[in-house]
Amino acid sequence: MFIFVLESCSLTQTEDNPWWRLDLGYVTAIRELYLAAPRNGTELKDFEIRIGNSTENEGNDNDKCGDKHSVRPGDIKTISCNITGQYINIRVPESGKALSLCEVVPYGMGELINKT
User: Fold this and answer.
1) Domain ranges within the chain, ordered by starting residue
2) Could you tell me which of 104, 109, 114 has the C-alpha nearest to residue 82?
3) pTM score, whole prediction
4) Smallest Cα–Cα separation from 99: which of 16, 19, 6?
5) Buried-state track 37-74, b at ≥16 Cβ within 10 A, e below 16
6) What's the CATH superfamily of 10-107?
7) I need a surface site. Which of 1, 30, 97, 115 has the fewest CB within 10 A?
8) Which whole-number Å values give the CA distances from 100 to 12, 13, 26, 34, 58, in the listed order?
């Protein structure tokens, strides 16, 4: 069971295609992500997750984990990915939106993958 007690949240400004990125520091396999939405915010709605090794185009050309996802206020969602990469990008591909996340935890990360 995943429980977060100290709520440390991130909030973008209202903008077109708001995004947030996690740099893991190395290439690894990511089996799933746990995401928490703010308790007193609006629904984290219609966001996409991209995982890969590129930061070009803000990482939006990396492999997509599923389709669009949503998390209700105060809820935690487990999202299965099974994608390899160094960067995890989360974005809302819409105009005039803000993105607010409280926890993003990658799980099932494998060993360092050497690219030779």
Assistant:
1) 10-107
2) 109
3) 0.84
4) 19
5) bbeeeeebeebbbbbbeeeeeebbebebbeeebebeee
6) Galactose-binding domain-like (2.60.120.260)
7) 1
8) 7, 9, 25, 14, 18
Point out which residues pair with 91 in neighbouring strands.
Answer: 19, 48
Tokens, residue 74: 């105060």
Can you read off the two tokens belonging to residue 16?
Answer: 């077109």
CB atoms within 10 A of CB 91: 20
Measure the CA dihedral 18/31/64/1, to 10°.
Answer: -40
Show the tokens assigned to 102: 């409280």
Q: Say if residue 92's pLDDT is above 50.
A: yes
Give the pLDDT score at 112: 52
**Which H or E run includes 36?**
strand 19-36
Tokens of 116: 């030779």
Q: Dump pLDDT digits (tens) for 35-67.
A: 988 887 777 889 999 999 999 998 999 999 999
How far the first Cα of the chain sits from its last, in Å, is 37
Contact between 89 and 65 under an 8 Å Cβ cutoff? The reply is: no
